[in-house]
Amino acid sequence: MRFLPSTLGLFLGILVFPLSNCRGQSTREGPPGEIRPPTGKADELIGLFRRLHEALDEIEKGRRTPDSAISRIAPDIFDTWFPLARVKLDQAMLHLDSPDAYPTRGLKAALSGMNRRRWDSPDGQSRARDLLKEIPGLIDRMNGGDGSLNRAVGRRVTRAYLTPNDGSAQPYHLYVPQNYRADQQWPLFIFLHGYVPDTSKINPWLCTPEVLALAEEAGCLFLEPHGRRNTDFQYVGEIDVLDALEQVRRFYSVDDNRVYLFGASMGGAGVWHLAVHFPHRFAAVCPINGQVDWFAFWASDFFRYPPRERLPRHQQWMIALNNPMDLLGSLLALPVFVQQATRDHIIDPRNAERAVARLKELACPVESFLDTDPAGHFIYWDTPVYRRSLEKLGQHRLNRAPRRIQHHTYSLRFPTAYWATIDRMETWGSLARLRAEVRDQTIEVKTENVLAYHLILPQELVPDGASVRLISNGEASFEGPLPADRTLRVGKPSAPGGLVKSSRVCGPLPDAFNFPFTVVRGTSGNPAENQEVDALVDRFLTDWWAYSEGLPPVKKDAEVSEEDIRSRNLVLFGRPHTNAFLARIAPQMPVQIGNDFFQIAGQKFSGPRTGLALVYPNPLNPDRYVVVFSGYPWGEKRGSNHKFDLLPDFIVFTDAIDPNVDTNHALCAGFFDTQWQFAPDLTWTGEQGTP
């Protein structure tokens, strides 16, 4: 391997050269970075895997060390090759298919429950060996300042980035047209993939060469995010799409006025999700056979969930949070082209028809194409659906300053549409609505369930220095020259020093995983108790990997630093007597956790097979969350891609399974109000029955 004559080169040489010695017998030949173990035996490959794992860990530590040789590598070069090396390591791990390589004790068993046709294949060891051989070459390219990947054209390139939340490396795939030039701006089409049980980092759901030929014909960049596997593009899957978009913007010349989103099946649902949550980010969108009404989808003959009104209130809200049919009002200014197969046997076509009718009723810019092809749901296996998408979406340009906007949301995690942002909600659990229109220099706003909002008025709507008049819910709220920051604020500010649900911390529990988080393992109990906590942590990490193909950092309770408290959400396992950090904050938490009981909302629950899951602002830093998992583990019957999506702000549950939705039976569950306080109308107990 060739290294620059520097401290970095010496560092990498010490780390990587020994990795070529599988039991001291390997030989080297071929391109830089090639490693050739003497055999394909699993134990030798696992040894090589571990050495490379340690090497990459050391490189990452060096990157965070000021003035180290590694820290001086240009960011664009490091972020091109190092995340890709991390992905190769993960891919090799899956192909090795061995408990000795997996990061948790339970992962092999968890993956066995999925359709693993690709990573338990007979040639898995051979594929793992080939992937491991690539890693030193990628590090060599990073060390040499190689920028060739950024210049590749006429083909699909696989890239990767390090995620902010759990630090994992996640892949994305980008087709770059043959005539791409960095001194021009290019349209970007983002395609979201469908659900396949064995989708993974070694088996990505990718479009065919025929579809890429359409992208070449259209002269566009064509992005296919991984979406963290099969997340329905919710929570971390949704964030993966936005992060991949930012990565493409960083490395390529993207025309921000021509960013389009489309997807099929699960990806079609993802298009609906991102459209209603972030309508101002895209020029136009096209869902193809996508779930637009999750309540109808889950209540179908296949899943047989109870209808919406018969679900416990906390489950109703958790589904509604990401239910496009509830949030279609946010699409007032976003062009939507709906493609739906009339013979779809998986997604009821009537749901798309209802969505289109509702959008037309709201005067949203919507068109639809009903495809009668006998392929039904699988019309996206052929190219016509893609050609229609590219041609129809490409007609639009981003409207950055629509005169009429509207936003519907259940959560302050999604507060913004174009130039309006909801800052506070009056009642948590109810839909917040904001509608705004600019006429000359008069802005009229109508809201429901909104305590505070602000407008940042674009230059295209209101010139600098112009006098404006703001009418909010029929009353004059502002009149005079537009402030220099172009911002008008309306409503009650949050009380100083008090907790309030905001765009920083608003719950529910899965929201804590959208941001940097560290798992904190309790070690303060007796040996048997510590072993029980270890098992809970291992189970969570197993579930997290199966869900998102990532692994967050883990610390012991005594190792939590002030920097961790300042910058990260903390996911705590154990009870106050077994987790020292939980004991530190327990007096300021809203739930009392005893050695064998939980007291929540004035009720005490006990029993050896009772568990608690809770999210709350960290009492030591209210701008970050703490999550508490105590007692019996959550979600043993939930599928890997839906493990966390029904966890509210708090829930006490048992090992009994609710057969309606395959969740642990809830004894008490619900949401804190807008000031992080218990509220009877947001709390559900099993004894109450279904509201």
Task: Give the SSE map.
Blueprint: H1 7-16, H2 42-63, H3 75-96, H4 107-112, H5 124-143, E1 155-162, E2 169-176, E3 186-192, H6 209-218, E4 221-225, H7 236-251, E5 254-264, H8 266-277, E6 284-288, H9 294-298, H10 313-320, E7 336-341, H11 349-361, E8 366-371, H12 384-393, E9 404-409, E10 416-417, E11 420-425, E12 432-439, E13 442-448, E14 450-456, E15 467-472, E16 475-481, E17 487-491, E18 517-521, H13 527-548, E19 554-556, H14 562-567, E20 569-573, H15 580-585, E21 592-593, E22 597-600, E23 603-606, E24 610-618, E25 621-631, E26 650-658, E27 663-670, E28 683-685
Parallel strand pairs: 3-4, 3-5, 5-6, 6-7, 7-8, 13-15, 18-19, 18-20, 20-25
Antiparallel strand pairs: 1-2, 2-4, 9-12, 10-11, 11-14, 12-13, 14-17, 15-16, 21-22, 22-23, 24-25, 24-26, 26-27, 27-28
Helix pairs in contact: 2-3, 2-5, 3-5, 6-12
Characterize the structure shown.
Helix 2 (42-63) runs parallel beside helix 5 (124-143), helix 3 (75-96) packs antiparallel against helix 5 and helix 6 (209-218) packs parallel to helix 12. It contains 15 helices and 28 strands. The strands form five sheets. The chain has an eight-stranded mixed sheet with strand order 1-2-4-3-5-6-7-8, with helices on both faces. The protein has an eight-stranded mixed sheet with strand order 19-18-20-25-24-26-27-28. With 691 residues, it is an alpha/beta fold.
Average pLDDT number = 92
Cα distance spanning the termini: 66 Å
Total count of strands:
28
Which band does the percent of strand residues land in? 25-35%
Number of helices, counting only DSSP H or I runs of 4 residues or more: 15
Largest β sheet strand count, sense and barrel closure: 8 strands, mixed
Structural Rg: 26 Å
Strand order, largest beta sheet = 1-2-4-3-5-6-7-8
Q: List the quaternary state of the chains.
A: single chain
Computed structural class: alpha/beta
Helix content: 25-40%
Choose one word for the global shape. Answer: globular
Low-confidence stretches: 1-40
